[in-house]
Design brief:
By secondary structure, the protein is α/β, with parallel strands linked by helices. It has helices at 13-19, 33-44, 49-62, 70-78, 101-119, 138-141, 170-179, 185-195, 202-214, 227-230, 234-243, 245-249, 251-261, 301-310, 322-329, 339-346, 349-354, 373-381, 393-401, 406-429, 434-465, 467-480, 494-500, 502-511; strands spanning 2-4, 84-91, 124-131, 143-145, 150-152, 220-223, 273-276, 280-286, 289-292, 298-300, 315-317, 332-337, 361-364, 367-371, 518-523. It is built from 24 helices and 15 strands. The protein has a five-stranded parallel beta sheet with strand order 6-3-2-12-13, with helices on both faces. The chain has a five-stranded antiparallel beta sheet with strand order 10-9-8-7-11, covered by helices on one side. The protein has a three-stranded mixed beta sheet with strand order 1-15-14. The protein is globular and about 85 Å long. The two termini are 13 Å apart.
Amino acid sequence: MTIDFQNINSIPQLVKDFLKKNLDGFQGKVFDLENFKNQITEKQNSYSDDKREILYNTIFSQNQEEQMSPKQLDYLFSLKDKNTFTITTGHQLNLFTGPVFFIYKILQTIKTAEFLTSNFPEHNFVPVFWMATEDHDFDEINHFKTRAHYYEIKGKAGGDVGNIKIDDVFFIQEFEKEFKDYLYGTELIMWIKNAYKKGKTHTQAIRYLVNQLFSDYGLLTLDGNEKELKNQVKDIFRKELLSNNLFEATKQQREFLEKEYHKVQVNPREINLFYLTETRNRIDKINDDYFIIDTDLKFSQEEILAELENNPEKFSPNAVLRPAYQETIMPNLAYVGGNAEIMYWIELKDYFESINLPFPLLIPRNSMLFLEQKTMGKIEKAGLSIKDFFGNFAEVINQKILDNNEIKSLLEQKEQDLIKSFSDIKTKAEQTDKTFVNLVNAEETRQLKSFKRMQKRLLKAEKIKQSEKFDQMQNLFLKVHPGGTWQERVFNFSVFYADFGKQWIADSYQLMDVQKSELIISLI
């Protein structure tokens, strides 16, 4: 079963409008074969052979520790071919991959590449996972959750998380206790022990895990924190330092989004760069000098430009500048991301034009929900539909509590009678003094408010009277939305993998239709 994103309340309107091609200027950036055809031509004309060689060498070098599958090697070698393009997704280096949507967005990226290969056989399409190694918010990535436990790792925060070395491995003992008796628990325990050995970095850990999960699908991983890669974007970084290019180029789009959607997903800074030492710190300009925030470092304009020229690896793009970096160094056609990611990419189209960089197609990732058969049975027994859980569920509960309620029906009938009575009075009152008409209107408002109060009191009374039914529906909501939010944002993949192993990965892959943006519900 699926629910289209257009029919889910919590999907942002901006994403819905983008998907419906109602967003001016973005009709050519939605999933469509003709759009991909145009994107191939545009990217082919702007991406050079020397960039291909650097990309190939970088990925080859970064994956020396991993045993690459034949399909990965085929994809890697194909990157040298001018007819090869990438489909990319990216994510933070969450402990043991973090929430399970990490898996879904990668699977959709892989399947999109396969889909394009079948539709454009004269080209090659390679799925790539961009590792957010330069992120410095360790608290965002140092944990994951299963049904039974919350796991967390300690580490020295402040620098780029990819280079933090693993020292605290206590969480592995608890993980082993939780999963040792599951069918595929041994495999999970082996993976977590191999990934999080003392002395390894978080980059090494995630690359190992991603390889265990997706090597057979040909997925390649890329860490952008490399001098040779950053050497290609020195001009972009220079414009950022000298003319606040991204901030200025996105102003018009940000004003439009604020006016039409009352929200800008990410507000860029005047300078969207960090400087890397042992920590990752924001660069700010005060008068004619450049300061590295929370350090004693200061550069003149001449000094910081010389530093960029000689040591580009020390400069790190933030979340809104990273897309331009990514699209410069890869022959990329499309980015698969969550709703928040898609919304901040939408801010950037004018900026891409200002630096003469092809803007990719944007693909909102599909969502997935795995429900136990017995939970679905209880939902149906309660007279509910799974769609009810992705609309206004509070309103659904209220309706169920008051189903076939005689007092509710009577109140509604009398309310309509009251409205008709006042309508008749107002028709006659208009022939008299204006102050009398005002009195009639005020009295109607007062009496209708009384009906609303009675209806609220009735609902409250029925919730108490039918507390068992009310609690049952609330509990079902928490089965569908653990912790009050979407399942995919709470549980780690191990929750499902422990019972079904790689078959669960294969089943998830098969369930996805990359041409649609939807929530996929599967029974387990």
